[in-house]
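Usage

Read records sequentially. Each one opens with the input sequence:
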Amino acid sequence: MLKPLGDRVVIKMIEVSETSKGGILLPSSAKEKSSVAEIVAVGSGKCVDGKVLPLEVKVGDRVIFSKYSGTEIKYEDTEYIILKQDDILAIVE
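and closes with the structure output:
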């Protein structure tokens, strides 16, 4: 498994529905890239003035993140994004 460093998190995209609200099947070219993902791993925390501050998010949280943030990687046939906690905009409850 991937273990992020510092204030970074590893997220996995949540699949977007393939049909519209009206029940129309959408082709892949018409689907928007989702900005909602699930956190699968978190780093140890952010270092500030020599102290490590724990992250505000945890494994299993569903989050909304900045559209163009992070680094996309493929690991063991699964696509992930590694990004800093500061690029997370909200936790979906």
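Summary fields computed downstream for this record:
- The chain is about 0% helix and 45% strand.
- Residues 45 and 55 are 5 Å apart (CA to CA).
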